[in-house]
Amino acid sequence: IKFWMSLPRGTDFYDFHLDNKVQHHGFLLKRSHLSNKWQRRFCIIKEGFLLVFKEQEAERIKRSSFYNVKVNAAIPLGDCVINLISDATVQCGIDINIFVPSVRFLFSCENRSNQQDWYSALSDASRITHANFQISDKLIATLESQGMEKVTQSERYRKMLEEEVELRHNESEKASRLEAQQTELQQEKEYAELAMRELESELAALRSEMTDAQTTLERTREEKAALEKRAKQLLEQENQRAGDEESQDNGGEELAKLRREVEEKIREKSALASALEGERSAFDQQAQELSNAVRQLSEQRARASAELAAEQRARQLAEARLREAENSLARLHASVSEERSVYTPEQKEEMKADVGQLKAYFENLIASKSADSGAVKLRRSSRLQPQQQQQQQQQVLQQPEQQQQPFLVRARSQRLRERHRSRLSCMQPSLSATAPVSPLAN
Length: 442
Known about the structure:
Layout: H1 2-5, E1 24-31, E2 39-46, E3 49-54, H2 57-63, E4 73-76, E5 80-85, E6 93-98, E7 103-108, H3 112-125, H4 130-240, H5 245-337, H6 345-397, H7 407-433
Antiparallel strand pairs: 1-2, 1-7, 2-3, 3-4, 5-6, 6-7
């Protein structure tokens, strides 16, 4: 009490207002352990103490913003027992027992409601003790430590969630590019099949024309042989008539004329046979070029089919791994979102497994990016040889025609080469521009 009374003016203990600086205040009837007489006292509950003043001091305390009067009693509520009493002697009473020193105070309230208000205020004030303060400090420190750990863990998982969102966005873009690539590969495959069917049809027509040319060549050779035989017979007849001078003059002219006609026909047949030979050579060359084009288209179609199948397998594998990562992330997010301070060992093991799975997924994704660059270089180098072959074929197609071929053969050969050149020029950009898309997860 001397300590509280020795506090200077202006401190919080003196500068107070009853409406906002104390826990409870009012009038009670007090009876101490030294006397059985009831006395009306003005009581204040403040900072774990019950301050008891005389009745006439109530007005002064209410008027002034501080008090410097001597209290009648200052009861520490931290180390006491508070009980309600209602019997024949005391109505609406409150019993306060202090253990050290052993002192008992008895208060009486006006009614039941006032009794409950004072009992609640006294019970709340009795909790302000040094032991409770230490416990609260430890509890606050523990909660702060757990809260910081929770914040750190939440921040780490938030970053993981942001990385996962970004990766999922990149995966969706890759999936879109993969779908577009598959569409292009499918269209390229269909175009290659259509071009191969057209080339096979033209090759069949060219072979039919080659057969017709071969038949015409054989027939021309037979006619040439017949004319040579006829010329030989005419020469023999001319030699037989060499003895008769008159007939020699008349018949010699006829035989000479007939022989010239036969020789002229032989020259024509020889020229026709040479032209047919040239046309057959041109047909053979065109057939070889068409066969090479068909073979290249078949190889390109096979590569397109293989790439399409590989892309589909890669997409399925990437989707499966992405689903596993999403499930792990969902479980991890659910564990982090739960409001708990302690995790069981099973939950910790599950969280470690989920984090390990996500880590493996990210490492595989990074490894796949480095492997994709090497795969692109390898595929480009593998495509370099077919491109060189196509350039060589274009150079062969750009060579001048043989001057000894007839006009009809040169025109047909030129049309076939221009058609083949246009197809190669159309297929070359589309195939070279179709770069393989890397798998989502290797």
